[in-house]
Amino acid sequence: MFRLFSRFFGSDIGIDLGTVNVVVYVKGKGIVINEPSVIAVRKSVRGGRKEILAVGSQAKAMVGKTPAGIETVKPMREGVISDFDMTEAMISHFVRLADDRRGFFSRPRVVVSVPACVTEVERRAVVDATLSAGAREAYVVEEPLAAALGASLPIHEPRGNMVVDIGGGTCEVAVLSMGGIVVSKSIRGAGDEIDSAIVSMMRLNHKLAIGDATAEQIKCDLGSVVPLAEELRMEVKGRALTDGLPRSVTLSSVQVREAIEPIVGKIEDTIRETLEATPPELVKDIYEQGLVLAGGGALLRGLSQRLSQALNVPVFVADDPLIAVSYGLAKVLEDLDSKRPVLSTVERGSL
Ligand SMILES: Nc1ncnc2c1ncn2[C@@H]1O[C@H](COP(=O)(O)OP(=O)(O)OP(=O)(O)O)[C@@H](O)[C@H]1O
Ligand SMILES: [Mg+2]
User: Fold this and answer.
1) Is the CB of 144 under 6 A from ligand 1?
2) pLDDT tens digits, 307-337
3) What's the CA gap between 141 and 344, in Å, rounded?
4) Separation of 230 CA from ligand 1 center, angstroms?
5) How far apart are the C-alpha atoms of 82 and 64, rounded to whole Å?
6) All domains in the chain, ordered by first residue
7) Of ligand 1's atoms, which has the minimum distance to the CA of residue 321?
């Protein structure tokens, strides 16, 4: 009976609307979409609507390679919507793909994660984009809260739980207790800024122009924040700034580490400042239980080791840091009707 009822109204869907990746969770099915936040469009002629050519990995494969008349758009920047129409188109595309119950009457209820630092206007924009993408109801939940739930931290207890979510566009640090955020700090930049630092280092030190996708590849293959037992090397291809011709250079993990250090230092400072602003009873809990890293940035080699030495607290990486937030959204969806304490930080789209 319940199944019939829910079929009539549509699915419950959680969307981790990230700057770099969108992960979509459908209640009862699990994660059904994990795609880059990129959309490829044919530019409108004489002010008409843009035609959508590809969304997700297909669109990402086109970045930096499009002919005149076609453009790739990353509609999210630093954790928030920078291109409303394209975000709406992207959400609408993913919801259509994810929700096979969708029919004339049935429209899904959608919970979307947003950075804790967003303004009311930015929060509203996410709700509006989700509603105009076809949701029956739209809610937002703060990303650090979702990450903490996804990492199975006991956030409902009167206990200090610390989570650091290092995404592509933001790094969010939060201390949670009794189902809510007690202290949080964010910096905008994170993974994308690390990629830009690598692009600049290649120009400056190697006189080589590379694109963002190559920089991201270098970060994932060579990126580290502590000296490695065996330093890594890779060949990087690009365009020489001197004569404009293709060239390759051999890059070592030591050079990458130096290049990304300023951003890693900023993340470390943000965690330190958050601890300084946290009530001592909760700091005591964090000192004993440690903090959890989530988001793709948590995968940087040696990050937990470096942070635990610098901050004097145990540091753990969430089981699957890239999908921790969507697992948290799954837990919010389980309780969408009943568990008001968690939902105190979730807003109804209709408010
Ligand atoms: N192995 C790795 N080492 C370092 N960084 C990585 C690795 N794998 C992925 N990343 C980075 O993680 C970031 C993506 O993480 P995530 O999907 O958590 O971000 P997001 O949720 O899209 O962004 P945000 O939450 O800031 O809006 C990218 O910058 C990506 O380059
Ligand atoms: Mg994220």
Assistant:
1) no
2) 999 999 999 999 999 999 999 999 999 988 7
3) 9
4) 24
5) 19
6) 38-73 (no CATH), 158-189+264-319 (3.30.420.40), 190-259 (3.90.640.10)
7) 18
